[in-house]
Amino acid sequence: MPSCRGLGKTFRIDGRNVVALRDVDLDLPRASISVFVGPSGCGKTTLLRLLAGLEQPTSGVILRDGAEPSQAAAERTRVGYVFQEPRLMPWLSVARNVGFNLEGRLPKVEIATRVADILSIMGLTTFASARPDQLSGGMASRVGLARALVSNPDLLLLDEPFAALDAMTRRRLQAELVALWQRLSPTIVFVTHDVEEAALLADTVYRMESGAIVARYPNSIPRPRDATDAGIVALRRAILAGLEEKAEPTSVQPSTLKRGTAS
Ligand SMILES: Nc1ncnc2c1ncn2[C@@H]1O[C@H](COP(=O)(O)OP(=O)(O)OP(=O)(O)O)[C@@H](O)[C@H]1O
Ligand SMILES: [Mg+2]
Predict the structure, then answer these.
(1) Tens of pLDDT along 153-190?
(2) Which residues contact 154 (CB under 8 A, 6 or more apart)?
(3) What is the position in ligand 1's atom list of the atom closest to the CA of 84?
(4) Could you read off the pLDDT of 13-69 as tens digits, one per residue?
(5) Residues contacting residue 162 through CB under 8 Å, at least 6 positions apart
(6) How far apart, in whole angstroms, are the C-alpha atoms of residue 160 and residue 180?
(7) How many angstroms separate the CA atoms of 190 and 176, rounded?
(8) Cα separation of 187 and 39, whole Å?
(9) Rounded to whole angstroms, how far apart are CA atoms 171 and 174?
(10) Quick one: which of 42, 41, 37, 45 has its CA closest to 241?
(11) How many angstroms separate the alpha carbon of residue 17 from the centre of ligand 1?
């Protein structure tokens, strides 16, 4: 599935260059779960937006299926995206929010069937005609997930999808996500600040810092996984130790600011 070579993204804010991503080399194996952790501003969302094609790199490439990046290859990849802030349209029902991106692209009957299926899987059937403001936070998160899943994506990008939820709901949705993944086998890229969540979900955890991937933690602990499992606890500690090492404020060198500047 997708790989990145020398991927970089520099933004210009008030005449200043902000390096959001630098020199990222990454292979995301088909049907794997890759989880990204790292402090606020280290480039996680930027990486997802580049993978989704919502943003163009300032350096490097994203390859699809190991081939050169081409419009055709990009269009063949169905991407589902759960945004960091839930972007439900408040004036539309749950069902229409979920099916919205398919409208005009598929026959109405097919959209209705797909939406009904995914709402049923996510336990939202009885809320199909509710409005987003009538939902709890957990339900709204599930609607966001349902909307990303309804197109049966090959690549599923999730940006802190459970961040606003209580611990119990979060655990349940994590289990639901793994069950869906086992059934539909999308390639998942998941961003979180919750190190336990990272250890529970990932085949590989990546730790980022200042726009770069600085550590990689493979995780072959068999599923279903338990947060109290010794392997999970050890992995969580290792990631946390890495994050805490870097907890002091970092100063960005002027020389690194210039690298990867947009041409
Ligand atoms: N559209 C944009 N225009 C200008 N700068 C941006 C833009 N998007 C991101 N940045 C900058 O890129 C850097 C990385 O931002 P990004 O949103 O990727 O961080 P993040 O790791 O997702 O952080 P968080 O954990 O807070 O969500 C930040 O310095 C941010 O200011
Ligand atoms: Mg972010």
Answers:
(1) 999 999 999 998 888 888 988 998 999 999 999 999 99
(2) 1, 77, 78, 79, 186, 187
(3) 27
(4) 999 999 999 999 999 999 999 999 999 999 999 999 999 999 999 999 998 876 555
(5) 141, 169, 170, 173, 174, 192, 194, 197
(6) 17
(7) 14
(8) 24
(9) 5
(10) 37
(11) 12
Residue pair 201/191 in contact (Cβ under 8 Å)? The answer is no
The verdict on pTM exceeding 0.85 is yes
202 DSSP 8-state letter: -
> Which numbered atom of ligand 1 lies nearest the CA of 211?
14
Name the closest-CA residue to atom 30, ligand 1: 41
Distance of alpha carbon 203 from alpha carbon 213, whole angstroms: 16
Q: 190 pairs with which residues across the strands? A: 35, 158
**In angstroms, how far is CA 149 from the centroid of its own chain?**
13
**Nearest ligand for residue 38 CA:** 1
- Concatenate the DSSP letters of all residues of 12-42 into one string: EETTEEEEEEEEEEEE--TT-EEEEE-STTS
Taking a 5 Å cut-off on Cβ, the residues next to ion ligand 2 are 44-45, 84
